[in-house]
Write a structure and sequence with these properties.
The structure is a homodimer of 193-residue chains. The first copy, chain A, has 193 residues and is an alpha+beta fold. The first copy, chain A, has one domain. Chain A has helices spanning 48-55, 94-100, 109-118, and strands spanning 3-5, 10-15, 20-25, 32-38, 65-67, 73-80, 132-134, 157-163, 167-172, 187-192. In chain A, the strands form two sheets. Chain A has a six-stranded antiparallel beta sheet with strand order 1-10-3-8-6-5. The A-B interface holds A 43-44, 47-50, 52-54, 56-59, 69-71, 88-90, 93, 95-96, 99, 124, 126, 128-130, 140, 142-147 and B 43-44, 47-50, 52-54, 56-59, 69-71, 88-90, 93, 95-96, 99, 124, 126, 128-130, 140, 142-147. Chains A, B: It comes from Qipengyuania vulgaris. Chains A, B: This is DUF1989 domain-containing protein.
């Protein structure tokens, strides 16, 4: 069954070990921030630094694993029709809107959406780490400078991940202008048993 | 007064807003993992992702600021004689020793040293984020692949940071072979009022 995350919103749900999560960009050029916490102890969470260490790359795609702060594999990427995702940046938030879009209305962003969706699982805002930003396009130049470009994902593109432990997942349809090429679209997802 | 961190050990201390912290590599080719927490609420901690976002670079040097998970500036880099540091990777730990050095004795690493030093401040191991790895040399190739090279720091090289809020600092002389070109040396530091 396909679940729909409305533009500029987010959700959270449990994903059991062995289940597959398919995150789909139905219209193209849209980012989805993904968080993962261990279901049995939410102090264990996704860690970009541990993942960079063990995977020895900044660029995750099919075959890579996403690791926790306790050096455990949380998710394995088993299929990926895009190959461009970001794991460097934190979810957009009220503070990032004020910083990057001072002329635009402040939005609570993926951070606020994730904080609300994760609260029922006992996860506090300060526990939100760097997200795995599905479809986000963040080129790094040789001197280390970053920029945020529109995603290269086309309508129907997707990534499929397998849960390697029982997880609580947070997932959004991203709210930031630059991340999505200036437009806001839904994200679809499916849980496959 | 110069404080000495012995090889493969760590320490923690308070740093008041406005004070300067000078981290020195006395013998050259040695890494120091640096953590920062807000003294009035240790749930606020250094965030590599927020820093990459606001500084728009992976490569921190003089003029860059290190940001917290609450989008506040914790430290400003005001002087830097090296210019090569890492903010991508997490502190070495028992798990990273088992993974990267299966033939070598397991060491608790910077993670274990930081966890012990920070415990008296009420900071739990799971709260340890990616460190700002002073003098650590982690080149990123255009395809995103990482490697850990020996530091380029020479004897006496240093970085000087200003506290922009009251902080608890964790600081190590790194314990991992690759980070330090295969040798373990002390780190010196000075707090300047």
């Amino acid at each position: 069954m396909t679940e729909i995350i409305a533009p500029r919103s987010g959700t959270a749900f449990t994903l059991e070990r062995g289940q597959l999560l398919k995150v789909i960009d139905p219209e193209g050029t849209q980012v989805s921030d993904l968080l993962a916490f261990a279901a049995d102890d939410v102090r264990e969470a996704l860690s970009n630094g541990r993942t960079f260490d063990y995977e020895e790359t900044l660029r995750m795609g099919a075959g890579n694993r996403l690791w926790s702060n306790r050096s455990q594999i949380m998710l394995s990427i088993i299929e990926d029709t895009v190959g461009t995702h970001d794991f460097l940046l934190t979810p957009c938030s009220e503070a990032t809107f004020r910083h990057f879009y001072p002329e635009e209305p402040v939005h609570r962003g993926c951070f606020g959406n994730l904080a609300e969706a994760l609260a029922p699982f006992g996860i506090e805002p300060d526990q939100i780490p760097c997200a795995f930003n599905v479809f986000m396009n963040v080129p790094v130049t040789p001197d280390g400078k970053l920029r945020v470009d529109p995603p290269v994902s086309m309508p129907g593109d997707y990534i499929r991940l397998r849960a390697e432990m029982d997880l609580i997942i947070g997932l959004t349809a991203c709210s930031a202008y630059a991340s999505n090429g200036g437009s806001f679209k839904p994200i679809h997802y499916e849980i496959e048993k």
